Every structure is written in C-alpha cells, then in structure tokens.
Give the backbone structure.
Amino acid sequence: MAYEEVINELNLKDTELRLGLPGTDEQAEVSCVKSNKRQFHQSNDEHNLKEEYPPPPAKTQIVGWPPVRSNRKNNNKSVSYVKVSMDGAPYLRKIDLKMYKNYHELLKALENMFKFTIGEYSEREGYKGSGFVPTYEDKDGDWMLVGDVPWDMFSSSCQKLRIMKRSEAPAF
Amino acid sequence: MNYFPDEVIEHIFDFISSHKDRNSISLVSKSWHKIERCSRKRVFIGNCYAINPERLIERFPSLRSLTLKGKPHFADFNLVPHEWGGFVHPWIVALAKARVGLQELRLKRMVVSDESLELLSRSFASFKSLVLVSCEGFTTDGLASVAANCRHLRELDLQENEIEDHRGQWLNCFPESSTALTSLNFSCLKGETNLAALERLVARSPNLESLKVNRAVPLDALTRLMSCAPQLVDLGVGSYENEPDQESFMKLMAAIKKCTELRSLSGFSEVAPLCLSAFYPICQNLTSLNLSYAAEIQGNHLIRFIQFCKRLQRLWILDSIGDKGLEVGASTCKELQELRVFPSDLHDEEDNDTAVTEIGLVAISAGCPKLHSILYFCKQMTNAALITVAKNCPNFIRFRLCILEPNKPDHTTSQSLDEGFGAIVQACKGLRRLSVSGLLTDKVFLYIGMYAEQLEMLSIAFAGDTDKGMLYVLNGCKKMRKLEIRDSPFGNAALLADVDKYRTMRSLWMSSCEVTLGGCKRLARNAPWLNVEIINENENNDLMERNEEDEREKVDRLYLYRTVVGARKDAPPCVTIL
C-alpha cells in the first residue's frame, strides 16, 4: 500500500521520542510518549485505517441520497463510536459500543486494547482488585462508574469512556 | 343497459368505486358519461396542476371526497425547492364558493395554510375526514380551527407533515359534544400536548379505533389512554427512552392486555427494551408493525418481539434487525405481505456488519409466500440473490431496492446488477412499481422495457449508459405513469423521441441528467399540452433572457406533466415554465 511507503520514506524513527538510550531499538511501551501517531496506526488492524482514510466524500455529500425522508434522517442517532481514554496513555482509542452485547464483552475488549486488567465489579464497592476503574460520561455530562445501570441504558447514554487510575478515583 | 332509467344505472354505478373503473365507464357513451359524472362522489387527482378546481366542480357536482397530490415524489428527498408550489388554498376557495358538500379531503405533498384550514372548517357543514400526508405550511392554530368548527369530524390523520407547533390548546378545541372521532393521528407534532384534554377527548370517543400520539406523550399518559380506549385497533405510541419502574410497567402491561382488538402498532421513536416487552401479550394479534423509528434498539430485542408476531402482514423495520432477524421473520411471519427495511446508519460512520444484506432479502422471499411489496435498503447485493428472490416471489407488485452506495456492483462478481433486476421484471408479471439501484447499464432498461408490462412507476438513480436506456423504457412500458430519474446519462434524444408518450403519463422528472435547455424548449414547443418546468436555484434565474448559446446548457432539474389547464400562475422565480 502506498501508505506504508510514505511512512517508510519519512524515516520517522529519527524523530521518535523514546525512553532509553539513543541507538537502542526496543518496542516502546504504551505509557511512553510517542510523537508519532502514525506508527501506532500502522500496527493496527484495518478498522482504524478506514478511519484514517475515509470512503470517498461522494457518499455523504450527494443531495437527497440515500432516498430517505428527512424525518427519518433526524431520528437516526448516527454513531455509537465513543472515545476511550486511559490515564497515562498518550493517545485515545475509539470503540463501537454496538459491537458489544454486555459489560463483559466491553471490559474484555478494553482490557485487550490497553493491556491491563479491570477488577471485579460489585455494586457495593465498584471495581476491586486492580489499579484501574472504568468510568464514562453520560448524556448529562456526569462521570459515572461503568456497570451500575443495565447495558442498554449504558450503551445509549455513554458519550465517552475513561479508564481512571485508582489513585485518581478515590471515591470508587 | 341503455334501456334502464338513469336512476337504475346510477345505482349500478354506485357499486363501482375504483377510480380507474369509473373513468372507464365515463368513456362508454355520452349518457353514461353524464350519469357517471353527476353521481361521482370520490375523485382522485394525482397532480393538482393537471386540472383546476373550477373544471373539477363543473364536471362532478356531487363531489364528496377529494384526493389531491402536489409536489413530485423527489420532493421527499429535498430535490424540490421549498416554494415550488402545490397550494391547496385555491381548491378550498373554489369548493366553498360552489357550495360543494365536501366531506373528505386527502392531501399529499401540498402546501396548506392555517387560512386554508380555517376556511375549510367553516365551509363544509358535513365535513368528516381530513388526511394530510407530507404536507407543510400550517400550524397547530389551523388544527384548532378544524377541531373547533368541524362538528362531524371523524378523522384527523396527520402523517409526516411539517407542522409548526405553537404548543397551544388545539386539543382543547374539540367541543365536549364531539364524540364521533374514529381516527386521530398527531404523531408528527413535535411539541407537548395538553394531556388532560387528550384523555378527555379519548374518553368521550367510544368509536375511536385509531390513535397515534406524538413523542411527548409519556408512558403513564399512554397507559391511561389505553385504559379508556380498549377498543383501539391501531395505536401509535410516543417516545420511551427510559426503562419504566416496576409499577408503571405493570400498569402498562395491564392496559395493553385489555386491548384485544389491537392490530396495528407504530411510533416508538425511542423505546427502552423493557417498554417494548410490555407489548408481548398482544403481538400475536398484530397485522401491522412499524418499529422503523426506533433507532437505538438493538437487533436482538427486535428479533424477540417479532418472534411473537405470527399474524403480521405489514412490517416496517430498521436494518439493524440484520439478516438473522429477517430469517426469524421469514420463519415466523408467514402472512407477511409488505416489508420495509430502512437504513439506520445514514452517515456510514460505522463498520456495521450487522445490517441486512442480500442474505436477509433471500430469506424473507423464501419464507413469506404472500410477500408482494418490498422496500429494502442495504449496503450490498448480488445478481444471484435477486434471481433467487424472483424465483421465490413472482407476485411482487412493488419492488424497491436501494443499495446505499451509488453504482455499487454485485459484490461477489463485480458485475452490474442488470441480470438480477432483469430476473425480477421477468418473473413478476404484475409488477407496478420498481426502484433500481447499484451498478446498472442500459441492459437493465432493455429488460424493463421488454418484460415490465404492468409497470406504472419507475425510479432510476445513477444508472444507465446512453439514451438507449431511457428509450427502452419509454417504448416498452405501455402502462408507465410516473418516471423519475436522477444522475443518469439520458439526454435530449431520449426526451424528444416520442413526445406523444407523455400524453399517457402523469409526469416525468429528470435531474442531473444530460438534457439541455434547448431540448426542453423544443419539447415544450412540440407539446403545448405539457407543462415543462425547469427548476433552477442558481442566482441567475431568468432563463428566458439568456441568449441562444445557452441552449446547450444542461438543465439541472426538469419536471414535466400533462395538463388541460396550461401553465400554472403560481410558480416561484426558481421555476421556469417553457
């Protein structure tokens, strides 16, 4: 793909900030600052590449297409992609909430994405057993603990996700 | 038959209600023409500019029920300027002046004003039924006049109109003596209603069969409404985003259980899954279900609901139901006649693999032998699937397929979808309405012209290669009435080949095609019985003042229609009638 040729040509490694002495070639960890978002994209699946290179504009700019009445267009909530941030991570991710049917699947996916473990949820004590707490911003702008409300209610009101470090979330 | 006295013939004609049949009767002889026209009660006018109200009244003095349509179909998709026309006011003025005993008025895509509604409400003492579909230009004040003054009002049905909601007390305007309501639909109103007035109105309307409320009617109000109207056959509910608490849920379920006559359910602009499940007890009675506005609800909830709906004949749903959901529908809804699957992801921002594909379409065609009408939005299609669908369902009367990406080919073979649509028109001998999409060459139109003998309405977008395509259709489809084309390479040669063809059609729409101003002018010269309208929303609107070389300029939007009353006088500046 032309995309990768461009990346290689730019020789981005020279401008990359890493922990460690110059000349060493370790894989930087998630928590390190990387100046180059593109390298991150390179190692990921096609899913994100499509976001980087969206389909031709024609699709979204044709007047009166698709042939759907405007009252239907207004009704449709367009996206269920939400941003996910993790304390200490240099860049955010985006996930499609509609891909998950319940909290279990969502939390597993987050664990995989950010390489950490979430503790056990209990209504009384929130998440125990790890250094991280999943929270989300709801339609009212409040930050809530993930898991309190039924999944459907959560997935329709969740605007943003934030995986907080326990040290920053004393209330939970 | 001519030996019978007129009253007997008239009585016989009373049994003939279809417009087509009555039109045919009137052509038999002078005496039949006279008897027919003097006794005709219901008139349908597909294009309000084809005739004028004076001539209508002159011909049909006993008119009781009038249906009028205004803007062309593509107005639904913002392709027609707001001010284009289709005003009902002159009609109401003329009918009032002639003291026609109007009882029923049905309007589609027309501009209605509060003034019109006020005049309507005061001019026809026996007025019973007002049905407005996709209309605009009025407010709840106009509704208040109708409620207040139409003493015998039975039906007020507002479908998908743009109504300015003054949040007034229009529901309060129904007098206490008004108890004849059979149908009330205000689902398209955006604002809050006076719930107390609504409940009182419903409580004193024992004949109310159809009630469709708007999104602002909360769950407890809905419960109360259903409790005092258990005779309801057709119910449209509001918006229920939040899960109900235990008590509300139990009350709702109890009220629903009492509605044993309920056959049709709609509304649900938002619905929490628990709310939806309250309707399970009456699912098995439903013949019509519209969940196509419930954008947030996940496929699995929809599937669970549909599993109970064994008697469903009409289903309108979102594509989030998925192929799996349609497979469930295919095995459950054996009585299904009409299916509409609308797109839920209009901005294509989701990599959504759960939306329907050709698989769902094939499944539903295989499982539902009575299916005759379909509108299907999807992201991909194959010829093989369409060929299978054609084999499974030769009874289609309406087949509308919209592949969301223009020019998209068969995703397994990368070929055009000519063969697939060709199979549909060949197998479905009774096909009256067709919408095509995806990658299509002139060949599909060859098939359509050859096989679609009953086709009356055809919608084309981003299809075809040359004028031949359009010519195949114009030459082949003898029953064509409405042809609408956008973004296709058809030009003057096709437009002008057979001018007399347009005598047999109601209208032709062409936008972003290859026809030029010169071609349109020539058409207008050769066919004075046509109104040839050029719609142009650019700054320099005065086309007639342009010099000759602009005749080669392509026309952005062309709308032509036969008429017996010449050019209309109410066209806005952006419309030029040649």
Remarks:
- The CA atoms of residues 51 and 128 of chain A lie 35 Å apart.
- The first strand of chain A starts at residue 81 and ends at 86.
